[in-house]
Amino acid sequence: MLPLYDVLVLGLGATGSQALYQLAKAGQHVLGVDRFAPPHTYGSSHGQSRIIRQAYYESPVYVPLVQEAYRLWHEQERLSSRELFVQTGGLMLGAAESALVKGSRLSAETHGLAYEYLDAHTLRTRFPVFHPTPDTVGVFETAAGVLFPEACIETALQLAQAHGAVCRLGETVTALAPQKDHVEVQTLAGTYTARQVIVSAGAWLGQLVPELALPLTVERQVVFWFDHGGGQLQGLQPDHFPIYIWETEDTMFYGFPDLGNGLKVAFHHYGQPADPDHLNRQVTGQEVAAIETVIRKHFGIDPIFREASVCMYTNTPDMDFILDYHPHHGNVIIASPCSGHGFKFASAIGKILTDMVLGRPTGFDLTPFRIDRFNTAL
User: Where does the FAD dependent oxidoreductase domain start and stop, copy by copy (predicted)?
Assistant: First the structure.
């Protein structure tokens, strides 16, 4: 007899690791499967740091979700006695009418979040490393900061296993076969069965549910680390330098303070289409030069290239998440909180997925994340 689990979680990155933990904590007999050994560098959940923020320019609908995520990240820090988050404050920069600035203010005002609206002179005075143009303004929130993705995933998996979860790593899933009262999952190593399955496979999601023809695009994303040619500056440290996103006339980029390994900077949504099974992980001199040009233009530092890393964004057409039951199989849940802005929410989404499995109210409006918003042949 094949073992019958309560739930199988396919993909143990940001979302899957959190779902595995919350399900195990809720007393479910749960198995997690991943083709690699997370935390790893092959998907979308590596790179040493991720931004977490509340004044969410993308949409006010995300604010309650990220507030719950904050609570759960702090809870996991306490349970693991491990640092998962550093508060740095967060700065959204751009023209007053830019989508980034207007959207951040809208979310803050919709949900009563405290923020400061800073003009260019104040920005230069308070954050002298930044070199804003005269028409640049900033939305500053104190609660924003940095999550450490590898530590978050590792911690979630350890907590999950402490509650009895089983992990099968280095196993590639080849097929799902939903039945009326269970789901069979075929891997290269064998077959598992469970009453329910969560598919949280990131860039490989479309391969596991091809019948849905989900309109997902995978985007190659490069992140860079730089030293400062003038030596260490106090103004680049986390207690002086916030996380930031900056929208200019022709680009959007984001970055972090120096957390001990240089300044991390990257473009947001300017990568090339990619195949997750054949991702180009070589970073060219032209790519380094492009981000160096941005740094020299907008910062008072001399960037010295240190290293780069390649990951993936898995995007929906509207850049919102997918959190929904399979349209034809209520025992399969699709979880793709991605589009390049999902990591910060993972702790809350893991809890939501557990509520969905158990048939409990999630406490959140998931309508924006439904599959039927796409014009797919279902």
Answer: 6-356
Both tokens assigned to 316: 């929906």
Q: What is the pLDDT of residues 70-96, one digit of tens each?
A: 999 999 999 999 999 999 999 999 999
Read off the pTM.
0.97
- Both tokens of residue 15? 């979302």
According to DSSP, the β-strands at 243-247 and 90-95 are parallel
Indicate if 325 and 311 belong to the same structural domain.
no
**Residue 302 buriedness (CB in 10 A; 0-12 / 13-18 / 19+):** middle
User: What size, in residues, is the chain?
Assistant: 378
- Confidence (pLDDT) at 8: 98
Residues of the chain above pLDDT 90, percent: 95
For the chain, what is the domain count? 2
In tens, the pLDDT along 303-330 reads 999 999 999 999 999 999 999 999 999 9
Q: Which residues contact 116 (CB under 8 A, 6 or more apart)?
A: 138, 139, 140, 141
Task: Give a yes or no: residue 54 inside a domain.
Answer: no
Helix axes 149-162, 63-80, angle to 10 degrees: 70
Q: Is the pLDDT of residue 147 over 70?
A: yes
Residue 74 backbone dihedrals phi, psi, to 5 degrees: -65, -40
Give the whole-angstrom CA distance, residue 15 versus residue 346. 5
CATH value at residue 119: 3.30.9.10
Cα distances (Å, whole numbers) of residue 82 to 12, 86, 237, 377: 20, 11, 21, 46
User: Per the domain annotation, does 72 fall within a domain?
Assistant: no
In the chain, the amino acid numbered 329 is H
Same domain? For 260 and 307 the reply is yes
Rg (CA), the chain: 21
Do 242 and 111 share a structural domain?
Answer: yes
Domain housing 282: 87-144+217-315
Instruction: Assess contact for 96 and 135: CB atoms under 8 A.
Output: yes
Instruction: Give how far Cα 153 sits from Cα of 26, 82, 241, 308, 347, Å.
Output: 19, 12, 26, 21, 10
